[in-house]
Design goal:
By secondary structure, the protein is mainly α. It has 16 helices and two strands.
Length: about 375
């Protein structure tokens, strides 16, 4: 009877999740991530064998672990990239709370794994570095807070996010881990800047960072050693920086050949912090340039896609995630060629490490979710709704 009077209601056909996800995702960035992961496995086949030999393990023990964690990271990345911005806000906030609690747990329970900095929680079957997981969660939370501060009667999101950033930086400096602390502060600065921060405030934050670095140089022998090693004109060839510089010079344009490199037998961190030295020695400038292009592709394409976004949270969170991803890669590469002081920072998706590759997968999953194509509506409609 209802149909006879009013007619049939139109049926809304919903596009299946997977096809809609594939149609809207940034396929270039998605592909670049998989290529970086494949390059990491390729380099791990060379760089991790000496480490396995020193620890009396099977030759490809660390490669197998990297494949396991990397595959898990890819699954996590794809799963997160299917989420809506609203779901991502909730996930990021909960993830930040969990990672922040783990960061606090380092004070009584942390271990340094013989490296002089208490950055890891030893769970028996695996060691976890909480700072890797704090970064993406904090960027999401900071973007949410700063975005909400634009609303009428909104919370003081700028102040709350800044206080959180200072607390996290303080906890990281206690480890000490000044590299991750600087990255957290930089990520907050990007989100705040995109959100419309006045330039004098950004200058004040930079100035505070410089003052903090000076205090760290005076109070931390760990930090002072790295700065002194960076500014000294004479490079000790027996240090990690010395071995890395020599490997890059030996590699030249085409490299010495697959498996022929020697730096992996001398560098204790050849499979993590200095993996690019192995790439430069065995495959030459060609592979290193290709890796740099892939990172630039991801960052630049993400930022250009975010220019079309009108949702403040999506713009702020996406810009923060893209920038910390790119800057982390830049820091790792800069340390290897002695443009920056040693930081102990991994190269995303390429360096060995379960925490590193999983956190990179979470970061890229969030970034891919935020840069998916969405109907933005006509600007005139948005202005009318805002009245």
């Amino acid at each position: 009877m209802t149909e006879m009077v009013y007619g049939f209601l139109p049926t809304r056909v919903r596009e299946p999740v997977i096809p809609r996800w594939w149609r809207t995702i940034d396929k270039w960035s998605f592909t670049a991530v998989f290529i970086l992961f494949a390059i990491g496995i390729l380099l791990g086949l060379a760089a991790s064998v000496p480490l396995a030999a020193r620890n009396d393990l099977e030759p490809f023990y660390y490669v197998q672990r990297q494949v396991f964690f990397g595959t898990l990271s890819m699954v996590v990345m794809v799963s997160i990239s299917m989420m809506s911005p609203a779901t991502l806000r909730r996930l990021g906030t909960l993830g930040f709370l969990g990672a922040f609690i783990a960061l606090l747990a380092l004070i009584p329970l942390g271990t340094d794994l013989g490296k002089g900095a208490v950055r890891w929680l030893n769970l028996g079957f695996i060691t976890v570095q909480p700072s890797e997981f704090v970064k993406p969660g904090f960027i999401i939370l900071a973007a949410w807070l700063i975005g909400a501060s634009f609303d009428i009667n909104g919370p003081p999101g700028r102040l709350i996010s800044f206080v959180l950033a200072v607390v996290i930086v303080g906890l990281l400096a206690m480890q000490p881990d000044f590299g991750q602390a600087a990255l957290i502060l930089f990520g907050w600065g990007v989100v705040y800047f995109v959100g419309g921060a006045p330039i004098f405030l950004i200058a004040g934050v930079i100035g505070s960072g410089v003052v903090g670095a000076l205090f760290a140089y005076k109070l931390s022998q760990h930090f002072a050693r790295r700065i002194d090693g960076f500014i000294t004109p004479d490079l000790d060839p027996r240090t990690q920086l010395g071995y890395a510089a020599n490997a890059i010079q030996e590699g030249g344009f085409l490299g010495v050949g697959v498996g022929e490199g020697q730096v992996k037998w001398s560098l204790p961190d050849a499979h993590t912090d200095f993996i690019i030295a192995v790439a430069a020695e065995e495959y030459g400038l060609i592979l290193v340039t290709f890796i740099v292009v892939l990172y630039c592709l991801i960052v630049v394409r993400s930022l250009f896609r975010l220019l079309k976004e009108r949702d403040p949270f999506v713009r702020l969170a996406g810009a923060g995630l893209a920038c910390i991803f790119g800057v982390q890669a830049m820091i790792n590469l800069g340390v290897a060629v002695r443009l920056l002081p040693a930081k102990g920072m991994t190269l995303p998706f390429i360096s060995y490490g379960g925490s590193s590759v999983l956190a990179a997968g979470i970061t890229m999953g969030m970034l891919l979710a935020l840069t998916r194509s969405r109907p933005q509506g006509d600007m005139g409609e948005i202005l009318r709704w805002g009245r």
